[in-house]
Amino acid sequence: MKRRTLLASALGLAGAGVGAAWVAKHRRLVNSPWLAPPGVPGQMVLRDFGRTGLKVSEVGFGSWGIGGQAYGAVEKQQSLNALARAQELGCNFVDTALVYGDSELVLGEFLQGRRSHWIVATKFSRQDAGLTATIERQLQRLQTDFIDYYQLHWVPRGREESVYEELAKVKQSGKARFIGVSLYTAEDIDFILGKPEIDGIQLGFNLLEPDPFLARADAMRDSGKAVIVRSALREGFLTGKYKRDATFPDPNDQRHEWSAAKIAETVDEVERFRFLEAETGSMVVAAARYPLSFLPVSTVIMGTKSVSQADSNFGQVPGGRLAPQSLQRIADTQLELGLGSRSQRMFRRLGISR
User: Is the sign of the CA dihedral 67, 166, 231, 244 positive or negative?
Assistant: First the structure.
């Protein structure tokens, strides 16, 4: 479909109530000045981590899964092998948290003799012990003297805002080299971009959840802060492997609580993006290359639990970008599904850390 046709379709949808501003944002962001330059498909690319001076692999290792409390149980040796394979393929960024089960402990074991290669990110998730005591515990679990990038797992406001001062002191002490915030909404982004002491932000961005990234892409780029993208595969659904009747019986799997209706709806939406397989060869590669196609993104963290997943995430995804015409068709499909406006409403309702 030609660009003109796509834009006309998008404008028609705007008139139906999706919102002209959202349409205009999509039209502009798929223009070449906004697109990340391609590398060699299958070869890891290093990107600037904001203005920190760090160079990070554009695909990072998401370690929630190896903690055994998010997507089912996992053998420790399998996790160690996955990490080792990721390193072989050029990954140098790993994201974890104390609340991710045994993830920090597994990572701490893996880092022995490898620490200098890795940029390690973890989070303070509002533990009762407080930030200063919690980071000391995490340093022990990770078996390291410092954390490269230490994040708040939510956006403190009001009476909680003193935690930003405590976070800055951790950076001044050298126990964290850089600091950031994991957030959810466009309003969260506005709030954090106004804090010069914060070095970066983390947020969800995928084919099914284009906002709040697209809603604040200009501001994030201009801020010079690092931008970490999570949930590129939408809890695994954008792998394209699930059917409408999928179930998740393991109580340790976060999708265990999903309703049958939510699962079916999500699968139906994924099917609308199957056209991307002709360009990339798989839904996994297509879904991950979507956020990688935009300049403000520093790294996309992908949950990895096995060597085979590492081969895909770090050996197939990097380097490639989606073609501009594919991005136009994605925007058109998102508009047809009403994903932008629905995403914003959903994020406003979120009240738990991720």
Answer: positive
Report residue 235 as tokens.
């809890």
Within 10 Å of residue 170's Cβ, how many Cβ atoms? 19
Parse the chain into domains and list their residue ranges: 3-349
What is the pTM assigned to this prediction? Answer: 0.87
Q: How far is CA 42 from CA 281, 290, 312, in A?
A: 12, 15, 9
How far apart are alpha carbons 211 and 336 in whole angstroms?
A: 15
CB contact at 8 A, 44 and 90: yes
Report in angstroms the alpha-carbon separations of 304 from 152, 233, 262.
22, 11, 24
Which ranges in 16-119 belong to alpha helices (H)? 20-29, 76-88, 103-111
Helix axis angle for 76-88 and 103-111, nearest 10°, is 50
The residues, ordered by sequence, that sit 6+ positions from 83 with a Cβ below 8 Å of its Cβ are 61, 66, 94, 106, 107, 110, 310
Angstrom distance (rounded) from CA 209 to CA 204: 7
Contact in structure between 92 and 118 (CB atoms under 8 Å): yes
**Domain 3-349, CATH among 1.50.10.20, 3.20.20.70, 3.40.50.2300, 3.20.20.100:** 3.20.20.100
- Per-residue confidence (pLDDT) for residue 26, from 0 to 100: 65
Where do the DSSP E strands lie in the chain? Answer: 46-48, 55-57, 59-62, 93-95, 119-124, 147-152, 176-182, 200-204, 226-230, 299-303
Angle at the Cα of 156 from the Cα atoms of 153 and 157, rounded to 5 degrees: 160
Residue with tokens 């092998």: 81
* 40-71: pLDDT as tens digits: 999 999 999 999 999 999 999 999 888 766 55
Residues β-bridged to residue 188: none
User: What is the number of H-type helices and E-type strands within the chain?
Assistant: 14, 10
Q: What is the pLDDT of residues 258-269, one digit of tens each?
A: 999 999 999 999
